[in-house]
Each structure stands twice: as C-alpha cells, then as structure tokens.
Amino acid sequence: MSKATIRLTLSQALVRWLTVQMTEIDGQKVPLFAGVFGIFGHGNVTCLSEALEAVQDHLPTWRGQNEQSMALAAIGFAKAKRRRQIMIATSSIGPGALNMVTAAGTAHANRLPVLLIAGDTFSNRLPDPVLQQVEHYHNPTLTVNDAFKAVTRYWDRITHPAQILSSLPQAVAAMLDPADCGPAFIALPQDTQELAFDYPEVFFEERLWTIPRPRADRAALAQAVDLLRSAKAPLIIAGGGVRYSGAEVAVAEFAAQRGIPVVETNAGKGGLTHYHPVHCGPVGIIGSTSANTLAAEADVIIAIGTRLQDFTTGSWTAFAQDARFISINAARYDATKHRALAVVGDALETVTELNAALGDWHADAALLPRAKALFAAWDALLDSHQAPTNTPVPTYAQVVHQVNLAAGEHDTLISAAGGLPGEVAKGWRVKAPHTFDLEFGFSCMGYEIAAGWGCAMAQSGPGAVSGTPIVMLGDGTYMMMNSDIYSSVLSGHKMIIVVCDNGGYAVISRLQQAKGVPGFNNLLKDCRVQNPSAPLHVDFAAHASAMGAASRHVESLSDLAAALEWAKTTDRTTVISITTDAYAWVPGDADWDVGVPEVSSRDSVRQARVQQEHIRAKQRIGV
User: Fold this and answer.
1) Which of 56, 299, 398, 500 is a plausible cystine mate for 394, CB 3.0–4.6 Å?
2) 422 shares a domain with 283
3) Does the structure show a pLDDT above 70 at 464?
4) Within this chain, do residues 180 and 237 fall inside the same structural domain, yes or no?
5) 594 falls within a domain
6) Lowest-pLDDT choice from 20-34, 494-508, 531-545
7) Domain boundaries, position 427
8) Mean pLDDT of all residues in the chain?
9) Which stretch of DSSP H or E encloses residue 94?
C-alpha cells in the first residue's frame, strides 16, 4: 500500500472524502452523498464553506432558509430514495446547530439517514466564550452540540484532523446499517477545521458502499414456521422496513401464496397499492375498520419491518391478549418488543426463507376472502365520507379525495402532523408503490413542505421517484414552517402544496375536548386575543405568492379540482389553500392511551377518566 500523503485542512479532507463515497442503485453506481443543505455562519463559513465551494460541481450545496427545515428536506430526500442515498445538512454553532435537533429526532424516530455537520466552539478554548457559546460551569467540554447525543445513531466531535480517518467510515456504516440506520452527527470545532494534516492518499480512493442484508437465525426461523403453521387467523403487518428492504413484492407474493391478509403501518403505507389483492387497509389509531377488525381477530401476527409504536397497536389494545407475534426486523431492539418471537434479519431475505420453509402450508381458505370483504366495506365507507355534499365547508375527507383523484399515478403524497395524517392514512388510495410519505413516527410539524423540497430533488437519477410531490398540510403547520416554499422556488424544484385551513390546531382540539377539557388555545377562536378585531385567518395564497410561488385560494371542491389541474401546468411550486371543516373526521380509529386527570372538578373529565381506564383494561400485558 502506498504511503503517499496529501496535505489538506480538516475541512478540505472531510469534503474530499465525501465526494468519493459511492453506492449502487438499481445496478448503477452513484454518489452516496447527493448534496448538501447549508446555512453558513461563524463555525462553518470560513473553513467548511471554502472546501464545499471548491467541489460544488460534484457535491452541490443548496441554500436553506432554516436549519431545521433544510435537515428535514434531507430526510424527505432519504425517504424518497428509500435510504439508498444520503444528503448532508450543515450549520454554524449555537442556535443554528440546535435548530437541527428536531430534525435529528425526526430522522432517529423514523430510522432514516442524514449526515449533520455543525460548527463548534474552539478546542483550545483561548477565545472563550465565543459568540453563541453556551457555557457550562461544571463541565467546560460541553457545548450545545452535546444535545444531539439523544437523537442520533452516531455522534462525534473532531478535535484532531486525524480523527476523521476512523470516524467518517463509522458514521457511514451506521447510516447504512438497517439495524442502526438513523442520523449521524459530526461536530467541528472552529480551530480544528483550519488545521492542516498529511492525510494518506488511500483515504481518498473511491469506495463503493452496499447495504447489508443480515439473514435470520435458523433456529428462530424454524420457530416462526412452527408458530405460523399453528395459526387459525394469521395477519401480516407491513411496516416501513418492508419498503426500505425492497421486500414489497416478496411480502405480497408470500401473502397471496399463503392466503394471509396484509395491513399496513403509517410508514408502510405505499408499499402496496390500494386495490392490491392482499391489501386490507391501515391498522391502528388512524387505521381502517377492516384492518382493526382483522387485528382483533388475529391469533398470529407477522410484524415485518415495524417498531410497533402505539399508533400501530392502538396502545396495545388492538390485539387479543393471547395473540402471538412473529417480529421480522433487521433491528434486534425492534424485533424483541412485546414478547414477540424475534426473527432478526432483513425483511426481503427473511420473508423469502420463511416462505420456502413453509412448504405447502396455507391459511384457512376463507380468511383472505373475508378480509377483502371487510376491506370492500371499508372502501364503501370511505366513499360515503368523501362524496360531495351540500355543506358550505368541505371536510378533510372530501379534500383528500379530490386531491387523490387529481394526482398522477406517480405523484407522491406527503403529510406529517395534525388532522391530515389520519385522513390521508385512511382515505388516500395509493395508485403506485412508493408514492406515499406520511411522517408519523415523530409527527413533526414542519416536515411537510421541507420534505416536499427534498422529494423533488430525489426525482432524478437511478431509483428515483417520478411525478410531482403533493404536500398536504393544515394551517397550523403552515404557520410553523413554510420558508421552503421560497427554497424550492429559488432552487427550481417544483411541488404542489394544498393548505387545509380549518382555523387552528383542530385535531388536537378534538382530543382535548374528547377528554373533557373545553376548547382552549387550539382553534384560533378559542385563543386569548387582546384585539377583538384581529383576523382569525391568514391569506395563505397571498403569503405564498410573496415568496414567488404560484397560488390560488378556493372555497369549493369543484374550484379545488380546477385549481389542481391548473397547478399541474405551472413551472414552479404552486400553493392552493382551501377552507375546511374543523369537526368532521372519518371513523375507523382504534383506542389510544393518553394521560387524563385522575381527579377533576369537571364532570366531563371524570367521565373521560373512566373511559380511559376502560381502554387501559384492554391493553396487552408486556413490554
């Protein structure tokens, strides 16, 4: 091996190394790191930006408007690429870095890769305290960047230029490992970034990374075969891991061959099309009556690529007490939850091996036809809630249906928080695989528009999604984070945004009042105001227009249909706002365990407490 070296600053070496990391998508070699979202400030502008500027033709840098939203855009990109390609987000020290913590939590909860690089204080401490430094009197080694330790899979602070020789490969390995996948964070002290070091030339040789596919333990697989053979009413829950493994076809063929219905989690929705022969709807708190009925009746549940969060399990009330779980997951932590038979392995490989080991076994021949009958009844229920009526204000269900009708086969629906996740999880009929992105692992308000920008970027190159991102969000989320409308106009990445204005945080007001608390501080009409003539609604179309987007406000479903057709013809991001009902919701929900006061002077709260105790009495025992 050559001992030749090249003298570079830490920042120059880091960036050069990033440019020679490659991966393979659909048989074609592509850069592992597709680009950088950056907001420069002290801590990353004098050294890191100097290095990035020099390689901008190989590693493009895109200017964000907010550190949180640009990191969320990187997450939307990774999701659209099914974790096979990664974006970078970089910030200055202090508030710029801390703005990315929420995005890191979103990536961590959803098991999605993003590389976060933030500036840091001086390692030598000579100029301390520097601008934006938060001092800890008891521990001078702490900076705000330590906050990322709770929300990242890999964390490091580079205090010597040689440390990246070992740290960077470890960061990539963590982001690409199906078991450990999540955000990686690198802190770069300002004085360390400037230091030159004689790096081995071999460090900058091109490297091709592949995503590993761990096989399941043979004994665990044999136990799964035995348990499944004993099942009278098996059920498959398909999670996001099915999509990231590329196991959709294998799972669908396994289900069809064995006669097992498939229901989906929020992250798993979109792996199968709505009318696929084995698809029976979303399960859980924002699920369908069909899937939740099947969950309650199932005796053996095959959970594939899901962490079984409370919205999937109905806070563990959705299943029978004696139901058994086979959990197929690349992550041991997720596979071993709630007394499941853990089959730790890649979804595609494990399902393929499980299917081969089952021989001629088949579930009861009546199971899948009955499941599809339940699903047909659910579909009819959706139709009844989505059909136009004479009411003056459209419902979420009607708006979702209208957007769904207008969407092209390969347009990607994106949503995340508020009332829309429940309505799109239930009511969006997926037309093509991988055209649905519902971030409901972290339920991060502000993900939607940023993710739309990232998804639009992902629509080029091998393995790319096609079509146009369609973002649906409420007025509350729009007010929280909308600056990437301008980002997308500036960069030339088009999306269509539909803002449903129901006058505030309507779905959380629904929960508040369902648990006995009067409407308070959620809907705008229930907020404390000093000026009684203050407007209760924002002109979202005018606001979006001010950021350079094409925009329209509509009031009726027919006008919405026309606006959506117009939006397809525009040359830039297009925003459509529509007033929607704050009180009408599609049924089908499972129970949810939330805190309700144990004592209260309100009779409505006391009644809600009794109902909550009834819910908790139905929970399965376990961890």
Assistant:
1) 398
2) no
3) no
4) no
5) no
6) 531-545
7) 387-579
8) 95
9) none
**Do 49 and 93 sit in the same domain of this protein?**
yes
Whether residue 108 is found in the same domain as residue 78: yes
Residue 380 lies in a domain: no
Let me know the angle formed at the C-alpha of 516 by 514 and 521, rounded to the nearest 5 degrees: 85
pLDDT at 287 over 90: yes
Both tokens assigned to 422: 């429940």
| Residue 329, domain CATH | 3.40.50.1220
Structure tokens belonging to residue 278: 């084995």
Q: For residues 281 and 253, is the Cβ–Cβ distance under 8 A?
A: no
Task: Give residue 1's pLDDT.
Answer: 57
Find the mean pLDDT for residues 589-610: 94
In 125-247, which ranges are E strands? 154-157, 184-189, 196-200, 207-209, 234-238
Is position 167 within any domain?
A: yes
Angle at 32 between CA 29 and CA 38, to 5 degrees: 140
Contacts of 142 (CB under 8 A, 6+ apart): 136
Residues 132 and 197 in one domain: yes
Asked whether residue 587 is assigned to any structural domain, the reply reads no
Virtual torsion, Cα 479, 133, 38, 441, nearest 10 deg: -50
- Looking at the structure of the chain, the number of domains it has is 3
357 and 426 co-located in one domain: no
Q: Which tens digits make up the pLDDT trace of 117-162?
A: 999 999 999 999 999 999 999 999 999 999 999 999 999 999 999 9
Do 165 and 224 belong to one domain? no
CA distance 156 to 467: 38
Digit-coded pLDDT (tens) for 559-599: 999 999 999 999 999 999 999 999 999 998 799 999 999 99
| Listed residue (396, 459, 387) closest to 424, CA to CA | 396
Cα separation of the two ends of the chain: 51
CB 396 within 8 A of CB 304: no
Domain final position from 177, 209, 241: 209
One-letter amino acid at 616 equals R
- The DSSP symbol for 392 reads S
Which tokens belong to 169?
């490969």
The pTM of the whole model exceeds 0.85: yes
Q: Which two tokens stand for residue 508?
A: 């959380």
DSSP E strand stretches across 485-535: 496-501
Say how far apart CA 367 and CA 232 lie, in whole Å: 9
Percent of the chain with pLDDT over 90: 94
How far is the C-alpha of 558 from the C-alpha of 372, rounded, in Å? 32
Do residues 228 and 297 share a domain?
A: yes
Model pLDDT for residues 358-391, shown as the tens digit of each residue = 999 999 999 999 999 999 999 999 999 999 998 8
Residue 415, SS3 per DSSP: strand
How far is Cα 413 from Cα 401, in angstroms, rounded to an integer?
A: 12
pLDDT in tens, 229-274: 999 999 999 999 999 999 999 999 999 999 999 999 999 999 999 9
Within 8 A by CB and 6+ apart from 208, the residues are 22, 23, 24, 29
Q: What is the CATH number of the domain that holds 14?
A: 3.40.50.970
Percent of the chain with pLDDT over 70: 99
Determine the Cα–Cα distance for residues 305 and 101; give it in Å rounded to an integer.
25
Instruction: Give the domain-ending residue among 175, 209, 243.
Output: 209
Give me the count of residues in the chain: 623
